[in-house]
């Protein structure tokens, strides 16, 4: 069979992957990863083919949906919003830190900003990368959409 990885697919580490929202053409590729957990940090709720595909997997796949709101200016202006975002990210980091959840796929809609922030925090907090390397990788996936507020958020989280 021919395999087509999802948009902006990348390997974060062994058995930890990132990408944009999978489409039907990507399902055979994702099946080859033998995923145990999928973390979705985007805001789509109507991709029924995708949700049915997850349910049809021979081994149960845990699905974690945390619709991250990266309006960081609004979060900075509101303690409640900032606390909610921090709680969401701490939860996601805890899921990633638990080895029983592997192999894991983390995805957003396009695999750029939301998943980029999550992966940047994994790199910084769980893997000990220096910020320059974290920013470099973030920029490669975000392409021209690199946002200084997101970089500051990563730095101070």
TrEMBL record:
Role description: Putative tyrosine-protein phosphatase required for protection against superoxide stress.
Location of the protein in the cell: Cytoplasm
Catalytic activity: O-phospho-L-tyrosyl-[protein] + H2O = L-tyrosyl-[protein] + phosphate
Any one annotated GO CC term: cytoplasm
Presence of the UniProt keyword Cytoplasm in the record: yes
Protein name stated in the entry: Putative tyrosine-protein phosphatase OCA1
Primary location group: cytoplasm
UniProt KW keywords: Cytoplasm, Hydrolase, Protein phosphatase, Stress response
Enzyme type, top EC level: hydrolase
Similarity comment text for this entry: Belongs to the protein-tyrosine phosphatase family.
UniProt source species: Pichia membranifaciens NRRL Y-2026
Enzyme Commission numbers on file: 3.1.3.48
Pfam families linked: Y_phosphatase2
Alphabetized InterPro entries for the sequence: Prot-tyrosine_phosphatase-like, Siw14-like
GO MF term (any one): inositol diphosphate tetrakisphosphate diphosphatase activity
PANTHER family in the cross-refs: TYROSINE-PROTEIN PHOSPHATASE (PTHR31126), TYROSINE-PROTEIN PHOSPHATASE-LIKE PROTEIN OCA2 (PTHR31126:SF74)
């Amino acid at each position: 069979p021919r395999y087509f990885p999802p948009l902006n697919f990348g390997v974060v580490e062994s058995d930890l992957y990132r990408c944009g929202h999978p489409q039907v053409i990507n399902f055979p590729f994702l099946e080859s990863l033998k995923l145990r957990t999928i973390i979705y940090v985007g805001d789509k709720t109507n991709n029924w083919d995708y949700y049915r595909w997850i349910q049809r997997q021979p081994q149960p796949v845990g699905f974690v949906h945390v619709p991250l709101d990266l309006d960081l200016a609004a979060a900075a202006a509101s303690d409640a919003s900032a606390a909610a975002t921090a709680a969401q990210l701490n939860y996601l980091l805890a899921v990633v830190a638990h080895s029983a959840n592997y192999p894991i796929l983390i995805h957003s809609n396009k695999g750029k900003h939301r998943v980029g922030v999550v992966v940047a925090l994994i790199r910084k907090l769980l893997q000990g990368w220096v910020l320059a390397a974290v920013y470099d990788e973030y920029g490669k996936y975000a392409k021209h959409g690199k946002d200084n507020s997101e970089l500051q958020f990563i730095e101070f989280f």
